[in-house]
Amino acid sequence: MSGLAEGQARQSGAVRGRPRSEAVERSIIEAVMRLLEDGVPLAELSIERIARTAGVGKATIYRRWNGKEELFVDVVRTAEPPDAELPGTSMRDDLVALLEQLRQRGLMTRSSALLHSVFAQMKSSPKVWDAYHTLVVAPRRRKQIAILRRGQANGELRGDIDVELVNDLFIGPMLFRTIMHPDAALPEGLSEQIVDTVLEGLRPVSS
Predict the structure, then answer these.
(1) Which stretches within 2-137 are classed as H helix?
(2) Integer Cα distance of 186 and 188 in angstroms
(3) What gap in Å lies between CA 78 and CA 118, rounded to an integer?
(4) b vs e for 7-33, b when ≥16 Cβ sit within 10 Å of the residue's Cβ?
(5) Cα(96)–Cα(89) distance, integer angstroms
(6) What is the average per-residue pLDDT within 63-68?
(7) N or C end of the chain: smaller count of CB under 10 Å?
């Protein structure tokens, strides 16, 4: 089974839709995966071709997704590691969980030539990339900012700093290693190391 298919199997419950329609939605997403595995570029994947491969009508797809951009986002989302389960024990622990998800996603992208290709194609398609940012990246960032605001409220983080900037300080090193420097090591413990290093300079100063 391919990396995309394995990810889809792990996250089939994350696909949108009513329980009785999950099998139909799964067949549609699997159809997109088969076409991608056959080397069909995203730009050439029409709703009509996807519907024919999945054995459904075009209306069945449009009832679930507004267009192929949203469908592609769900294909990638089901292939990625699931969103992190936040322990909620502290700001530090929640941040480590989020960065660990980024590390795992980076490892998965490196190990799957198909997933790596899909991401590259998404970035070259403004509509698909905008949809991915709106449906996936932006909600994740809002979650990250909320964690930092809670940290300020409970005294784990200085209250005089911009949480948007601080979020970039935490997330930036992992994104740099996974995207800008794909040959960089992503060892176990890296998430904890990044969070603890940044926190060292951002904790409130005791009076």
Answers:
(1) 3-10, 22-37, 47-54, 58-62, 68-79, 91-111, 113-123, 126-132
(2) 7
(3) 13
(4) bbeebeeebebeeeeeebbbebbbbbb
(5) 11
(6) 93
(7) C
